[in-house]
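Annex B. Sample input.
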Amino acid sequence: MQIGSKTLPVPILQGGMGVGVSMGGLAGAVAACGGMGTISTADAGYLEPDFFQNPAKANLRALTHEIQKAKELAKGVGLVAINAMVATQQFADAVKTAVSAGVDAVVSGAGLPLDLPALTKGSHTAIAPIVSSARAAKLILKTWDKKHQTTADFLVIEGCEAGGHLGFSFDALQDGVCQTLDEILPEVLSVVKPYEEQYQHPIPVFVAGGVYTGADMAHYMELGAAGVQLATRFITTYECDASQEYKNVYLEAKEGDVTLLHSPVGLPGRAIRTPLIEKLEQGLRVAPSRCVHCITGCKPQEIPFCITHALIEAVKGNREEGLFFSGSNVGKLNRMLHVHELMEELQKEWRAFA
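Annex B, continued. Sample output.
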């Protein structure tokens, strides 16, 4: 499959997970199997010794290192991408740094990446927005065409069962009235089609959120998707960059442990219920002890908790203070796998149902 100027052998994307969950180790392992491995740019430098003194420099330094690590592990088989959230203060700098480091693709959500093409102009880096509706896809593609005279190299539709930050209203998620991937996909394909014709190249559309098996993959590809993106399933792989304590939280989670929360990013999120979530549900506030200026428009004196602190504590395995973002299928996770085993399992199931 063609993704911009590059070839993706296997139509499986590994979704970006921050802080520190999907870094060079996981992304490189996925790419080595022919998929697209994705590094999250969210506070990528959290382990750097100067992170709290100079988070901006630490993040960009670490991002460069992680991309290089992933590319080395990939050995030119698959592709290495970054996931850059529009809502982060370092969005532009992170994208530019990744392009300089030779990243193959930039996938961007948590906001509308209307100016993303300007940040990758002149490079061979593919660009893709994450959308949750045909309306968002139409707005982004129209803006990229009119303002930047270009279009997307691929798109990712993130449905309402995804983990992390979600592109739906809290009430719609809570009431279960969101459009399904089965409904969103054909609408987005219709939006994409004229731009494929205008720019004379395919714009593959991948679906994410609630995708768990190769059978799911076959279903969505039959409906017109080019492939799928999974994130939560990659957490319980040995190559995932998080601690084993972090992975154990997912292995032990049951279906009823998944809940919704209001994130300081300004979007609803889906996560595993932990002591932090329980405090927030009781209306309690966990005041930030320090700020690394991660989110645009964040007001540390007002937010209910610091998302950077919560995600860093999570990746270390701190169940008391950590925020463990998760997709809706986390209750199905029951064993550790190597990335190559998971990739083989997904492809075998996909071909059996295709």
